[in-house]
Amino acid sequence: MKIRAILVPAFALLAILASKSVKIPEADLHRPTAMPGRVILTWAGDPATTQAVTWRTDTSVDKAMAEIALDEDGPGFVKKARTVEAVTEPFESDLGRAHYHSVRFTGLTPGAQYVYRVGDGFNWSEWNQFRTMLDKPAPLTFLYVGDAQNDIWALWSRLARNAWTEVPKADFIIHAGDLVNRSLRDAEWGEWHEAAGWINRSHVSVPTPGNHEYNAPAKDAARTLTPHWRPQFTLPENGLAELPESSYWYDIQGVRVVVLNSNVKQTEQAAWLDRTLASDPRRWTVVTFHHPVFSAAANRDNKPWREAIQPVFDKHAVDLVLTGHDHTYARSNLTSGISGRAGKSGTVYVVSVSGPKMYNLDREPWMVRAAEDTQLYQVVRIDGDKLRYESRTARGVLYDAFELRKQKGKPNRLVNQVPVTPENRRAAGAKASE
Ligand SMILES: [Fe+2]
Fold first, then answer.
1. Would residue 3 count as lying in a domain?
2. Domain count, the chain
3. The pTM is what?
4. How far is the CA of 30 from the centre of ligand 1 (A)?
5. Tens digit of pLDDT for each residue in 155-177?
6. What is the CA(366)–ligand 1 centre distance, in A?
7. Using an 8 Å Cβ cutoff, are 178 and 210 in contact?
8. What's the CATH number where 81 sits?
């Protein structure tokens, strides 16, 4: 047994040494060409009548465009497509130069299926389809994931595939920050785009920046949002004026979805959110950002952020707050107050993680359900007065669930529907399975 244990690695090492295979350099693996790459749908305006698409090419493409038509059963739509010119901006990453292109389709019909392609007139993407949202309250389904961040290609992609296979008609996906680990590295963004494959070309992404999307260009310099963010995501500029495309909101079929940038300008965003929700006529309000209000680990408390933002959630009866950062899972009951008081009114707070990096959990009374060492995605379905939430593991197993029900003139009613399965916790003294 012992001899075998020594021989197997020795043979494996010899095989590697004898092989002619070499690891492809990142600059080759992620090099842009004239063919559109990293094509991604986002919203920069009203989700019922507009759609944005962004893509990357090499620098030979300086005049880019998109074509769009209403979808049809056969290929006849191709002749009916209209052309929309793209905005092109140069970008230089650690792996070299590229061009990013973006188009904003406007004047679209609510609730209609369209097909589009992007290119330069010679080199085109395939025709991809998307559906505009309705311009009135209607059933809505979306996905939400916490930090993807590490080994995105190798270990996060299976979660993305499984989530979209389980819920193929989801209307959009929220990424609650730390999409990548080292956000100045183009190869990591390449992995992030590749991991979702064609999904990003047909389903809308709603990204929020985490601390790993922030960098200090030099020691003691102020941290800044990665320069990759704005060229590759075409997002609204309707949030805090100093944070274009990283704080923003949408009204989607009766739900207001607000994205905050919890890295910077916290008190300013709290005041902005207070103003924004004061004019919120929507039935449901969902807020997402990276740093948890109630942390899932004792030494990771975000006190200034909680003190700034939590009273705004209470004041405006925000229904659901979706976060990441702590690389564990934790979900609250209806909770109000800065100290996190569970009761018959308040907000449901969630911390979740979708990538493979795992931290220790500090189990606290506010957590209805919690997990360690578990990659999760969440499905939220809103239909009229009912919101149904599910958290599922990377392989699709239901891990947590609840319903929120709107009650006229009263706070929401929370109905916990936690599966009767043990919590995923590591053995005492065991290390994280990073
Ligand atoms: Fe993270």
1. no
2. 2
3. 0.94
4. 23
5. 999 999 999 999 999 999 999 99
6. 22
7. yes
8. 2.60.40.380
